Amino acid sequence: MAFDVQNKTVLVTGANRGIGKVILEEALRRGAKKVYAAVRNVDSAADLVVAHGDRVVPLRLDLEDPASITAAAEEADDVDLVVNNAGVLKTAGALAAEAVETLQYEMNVNVYGLLRVAQAFAPGLKARGGGALVQLNSVASVRSFSDFATYAASKAASYSLTQALQASLGEQGTQVVSVHPGPIQTDMGADAGFHDNAAPPELVATAIFDALVESRFHVWPDPMAEQVAGAYQPFAEQVIEAEQQEKAV
């Protein structure tokens, strides 16, 4: 179920900065005919329009606002590829006073946001032949960290949903990709204290489109992610990916 972005229409959430911005730019570099920059504030995508012209279309989409997701799916009814990149991260340990409130916030964006996006865009993807859905998860989805306990929990939940979506959307011919970066050089990463050994976001963008072409579900795009994958991948191949491979035969 390979997907080539050439001459396709793409939607990227959180496309105005960080990983989302380089995903948008990589899609254009690989020949996408149009990319929706799906952001909370459409004015934040103005620079992208200046740089790329009418190949970039700003579109309001807020993962905390279900109505905005529904409206975006209705407006962008020509999308072939949805990249759900937007997410939030707060530093909170499991015993922190604010842990419950922080987890609720991260779950609402990182988990319920994914579910809302998948439900809103699935019919359109099906109507256009299947297309693809890419979800930005994290190495924290398979290995928790004490200072980021709530974030890791939310990403573990989004990873679980991504696995289920691979099966559900696969029935309509939609390819699903789960991306698991380690620390990346972004504003969000810097705010979380990821200064040392953070990888450039371009690695993530390149790995996503390579995985789409190669029909791979898991993506481990940077050095830290590759280390985690070295231990985790045998389980992923034998348990998570095995059923989907059997269905494809």
TrEMBL record:
GO molecular function, one term: 3-oxoacyl-[acyl-carrier-protein] reductase (NADPH) activity
UniProt-listed Enzyme Commission number(s): 1.1.1.100
InterPro entries given in the database record: NAD(P)-bd_dom_sf (IPR036291), Sc_DH/Rdtase_CS (IPR020904), SDR_fam (IPR002347)
Keyword annotations from UniProtKB, A to Z: Oxidoreductase
Keyword Oxidoreductase annotated: yes
Pfam families named among the record's database cross-references: adh_short
Family: Belongs to the short-chain dehydrogenases/reductases (SDR) family.
Name of the protein in question: 3-oxoacyl-[acyl-carrier-protein] reductase FabG
